[in-house]
Design brief:
The longest helix is centred in the middle third of the chain and has 21 residues. The protein is an alpha/beta fold. 41% of the residues lie in helices and 19% in strands. Helix 6 packs across helix 8. It is elongated, with a radius of gyration of 20 Å. It starts with 11 loop residues before the first strand and ends with a helix. The protein folds into two domains: 127 residues, 3-Layer(aba) Sandwich (Rossmann fold), CATH 3.40.50.2300; 103 residues, Winged helix-like DNA-binding domain superfamily/Winged helix DNA-binding domain (Arc Repressor Mutant, subunit A, Orthogonal Bundle). It is built from nine helices and eleven strands.
Length: 243
């Protein structure tokens, strides 16, 4: 099936389901339709994966051993607005209402038609991408072709997602909260609650530069401020010429 209206190759989906056969089938089907797909057998494994990878959408089974999909979604929503589609073998309206209350974007009842799942995923991603592009407000910091959303902690280049690790997200968010301001290592450490050591800050800055700078030796955006530390230069006066 060809997807002409959505560049699926730019989206990474995490499938969380204890049914190994269903996970494999979903992974193969979605990959055949252009998505990048990772999978987890339970929420514990999903949390570990999400510590190092950023996803554009979660497909979550409700009934799983240990923590349920609904409880996982409720916990995730405390810090992350990533879109989520719930899979359930239950048709009780109360289950759907609980999921919607916790922040689910859509529901599908097992068994389901794969093509319908694909259409629902596409619709969710189109809706969220459209809202993101239109919602250029105080939650977004723009520099050159890049846009960083301080709520989702996602970075985009010309509206295409750029992968960041969790530590890179936190560090870039620190700079985006106060762009064009110089930060010392102590400033960064205090802003992040002491969660990053000096060496970790240096490594994360180098990694971010590899992703946003054309020439890391002469950075345009994440600049070194001699005798102080670093600053994110947004070049506000040149923004209109950067696009």
């Amino acid at each position: 099936m060809n997807n002409k209206n959505l560049q699926t190759q730019n989206f990474h989906i995490l499938v969380i389901d204890d049914d190994q056969k269903l996970r494999s089938l979903l992974k193969q089907f979605l990959e055949n339709n252009g998505f990048r797909v990772s999978d987890a057998e339970d929420t514990t494994q999903a949390k570990k994966i999400m510590e190092s990878l950023i996803f554009d959408l979660l497909v979550i089974d409700i009934m799983m051993p240990g923590q349920s999909g609904l409880d996982f979604l409720k916990e995730t929503r405390q810090t992350n607005l990533i879109p989520a589609l719930m899979l359930t073998a239950m048709s009780d309206p109360e289950d759907r209402l609980d999921g919607l209350e916790f922040g689910a974007d859509d529901y599908m009842t097992k068994p389901f038609e794969p093509r319908e799942l694909l259409l629902r995923i596409q619709n969710i991603l189109k809706r969220h991408t459209s809202n993101f592009i239109k919602n250029k407000d105080i939650n977004n910091t723009k520099f050159g072709p890049f846009l960083f959303n301080k709520k989702s902690l996602n970075l985009y280049k010309n509206d295409i997602p750029v992968h960041l690790t969790t530590s890179e997200q936190k560090l870039l968010n620190c700079f985006c909260l106060s762009p064009n301001k110089a930060f010392t290592r102590d400033d960064i450490n205090n802003s992040l609650g002491g969660s990053m050591e000096t060496r970790s800050i240096d490594v994360a800055i180098a990694r971010i530069r590899r992703k946003i700078e054309e020439d890391q030796r002469h950075p345009i955006y994440l600049q070194t401020v001699r005798g102080i530390g670093w600053m994110l230069q947004t070049h506000d006066d040149k923004t209109d010429n950067d696009f």
